[in-house]
């Protein structure tokens, strides 16, 4: 019987794979091209995009972001037939919709892969050959419950009793509710059962390979259960829309094997992938965790390649507590939402409210309340008040007065020396530690917590501004003028930090804020970001600088929900028209 080694091989890694300046490939799943995008797709892409932008602002080394569309499989073959078109025409249209939605959302992907492309198909054929040559494939008769929407066979433990469209009893997927059908055919099988030990060793040696931890623990539990061999092809007479098995025209390569290889084809497999692989972080939804955390690493090991460095997993979006479903008519169109709430407004909402470990709920009122409160009122209002001509008639970055705000060793022991009070010192300490906190949360795939910290500091800064009422100070009094300038200096320094840290999430709004503060492009990196240098007795390059031109309201408050809902309904296009 064929057996893989119990321990993983440890090939020499390239220098670029570790340490400062190393390369990194971020990836989203490639999205299935049987229907238009929804907010779940966009959420995956925004997480990856924010991680990419954050990395670039840290000047951490070359990075790429790949995405694309998965264009093969029985589901697409059936969807095309139902729409009265060919699979190729359907994929062309739907792939265009995904490109359009991602571009509209400002997702800065560097590569867009379509599995119908020749370069990808060549990579898949080579990968199949590596599996075949490694002795991990065999032909056998396979039967079981097949779920077409999920493109996978499901064991009895993942099934439940349900009813079909005609109300007749049937078997359904326990997780998704999709109907399954008993299928028996002769396929190529992959010896997945032989990879239990290598996969367990990989995960124990790399406890952060799958993150957050609940998903890591979930995969370990799967590995303690039965791990049957995997069907990796379908009979060609059942599935024509796919890549034929090399040297066997009666079989089509299983759509998930085909799709997973996109992560290799995008970096030049089989010739030049070594420059990037395995320094790869996959961002995936929890519904496809098994494919990415069990099947994909096993397939890679069988082909003589290392598993990806990290798999970052997120949960789903529900709508008013219900799963998104065409039958319920509650699928949320991201393009409509971006038109309604603004691109940055909707980006902020998804990344601020999305918690990877648990499902998140969407409804219009929540978006309006959040972005009005945190973007329009708290952040936008603070910028508007601190740069208003009535308070800052010279339109400059005012000077900081050390006698007004003297340095203390411990903000917790500050008793209000000078004109500053204890809360002011707590604000300075909070904002000074913010860049490190935010960096840590991005590295830990907790972007929502980074945004929570920023929002809390913005609230503290508004409290600082309100507490000292600079509009009440008499600038004709030299002492009062010093304190007024110091209040404005501290406020603008806080705003500069917030604008810099928010660039990965709301790039256009952050640019608008930083431009108003006259922060030049070369001064916007996270690496070397300083705060309130004058408080530490150092020079501040912004002090005395003329502010940038007034860029208007930072973020317009969203209007009445009833009006917005009407506009949303008018903008929506039925799925059938899109296809």
From TrEMBL:
It catalyses: tRNA(Met) + L-methionine + ATP = L-methionyl-tRNA(Met) + AMP + diphosphate. It is found in: Mitochondrion matrix. Keywords: Aminoacyl-tRNA synthetase, ATP-binding, Ligase, Mitochondrion, Nucleotide-binding, Protein biosynthesis, Transit peptide. Signal peptide: none annotated. It is an enzyme of class 6 (ligase). Its main location: mitochondrion. GO terms for cellular component: mitochondrial matrix. Belongs to the class-I aminoacyl-tRNA synthetase family. PANTHER family: METHIONINE--TRNA LIGASE, MITOCHONDRIAL, METHIONYL-TRNA SYNTHETASE. This is Methionine--tRNA ligase, mitochondrial.
